[in-house]
Amino acid sequence: MTCDQAAPLLAASADGVLDGERRTTLDGHLAGCPECRAALADQMAVRAWLARTPDVTVPPDFRERVNARIDGGDGLLGVADFRAWTLRLAPFAVLLALAAWLGVGASPSSTSTPATPSVAAAGAFVPSSAADWQRNVSGNALLEAALRPAAGGEVDVR
Amino acid sequence: MDADRALVEAAAGGDRDAFDELVRRHQSAILGLCRALIGGRDDAEDLAQEVFVRAWKSLRTFRGDSSFRTWLHRVAINVARTHHVNRGRLMRLFRPALPHESDPQDRVEAIDARLARRDVVERALATLPRDLREVITLRDLQGLDYKEIARALDVPIGTIESRIFRARQRLRPLLAPLVDGRTTP
User: Which site among A48, A93, A121, B82 is 20 to 30 Å from B165 CA-CA?
Assistant: First the structure.
């Protein structure tokens, strides 16, 4: 038996699970090989120290939180699950694509009433279509218009 | 005879109290396993919870070929592998390297000997490649026998023996603070 052949048996030997024939063969090799004897001693030392690794402290509410997740929660894995996120975000991606397409394709002469609250202040910008929003609302323009006092000093937001 | 058999059968039939008892019995082992597998990071607890959630959802598929403990460890390994893949993707997006992959002996803070000991072990384990880390954790921290590990990882026993040997060899210098007695139990 060579050292390379003995190596995999050293772990099982340290664990005391080496069967008869393999045990005899290994013992024969160990008798004349100080390197493998040292390696066996290392295996036993590491095994003993790892086995004495202190148990973790389980948080008192661990089971409670497991039950909460079974009942419908989600955890860090859910957050980090790319496939799950792809599925979750797919409808929003479709809606965004649709909104972008409608915004770009809308007619500039559209006379439809805006669904958003209008700002009825003097000089306030009231968009009439999605295209108007794109062309005329940039930066804080809408915010500034909303905050600009109407005649009489009040902002009327309907 | 699997000590969990009656509880597993009850839980597979929808008995939440039975499953809660299974969680109570195995929570410490699974949390320890998750910590060891992912390097003791804070999300180990979340991972351990996920193991039990997955176990609950797939309990009906448990055929009893192995003990519930072995099966649960297999679930944990799979959850940790998925977590590793997902975390790797995130890290590649936001950071070039994982912080826990640094030298495990670079910042041993022995505030408390017990915590320091676990800390050294977890950081040493974190330096191992996944196949070695899994097998040595299952053997030396979780106490599974070779057959159970072979079942949990679905690899031959000869491979398990070889991996355990190599893992201990690589851990020996990293655990020197423990083995040489600088950190007492």
Answer: B82
A42: CB partners within 8 A, 6+ apart: B168, B169, B172
A–B: how many Cβ contacts below 8 A? 121
The pLDDT score that the predictor gives to residue A152 is 44
Query: Are the beta carbons of B28 and A58 separated by less than 8 Å?
Result: yes
Look at residue A114 and tell me whether its pLDDT is greater than 60. no
- Helix, strand, or coil here: A28? helix
All residues of chain A having their beta carbon less than 8 Å from the beta carbon of residue B50 are: 69, 75-77
Domain ranges of chain A: 3-52, 118-147
Question: What is chain B's mean pLDDT, rounded?
Answer: 81
The rounded distance, in Å, linking the Cα atoms of B172 and A39 is 10
What pLDDT score does A83 carry? 55
In this structure, chain A runs to a length of 158
- In angstroms and rounded to an integer, the radius of gyration of the C-alpha atoms of chain B is 17
pLDDT at residue number B119: 80
Chain B nearest-CA residue for A49: B179
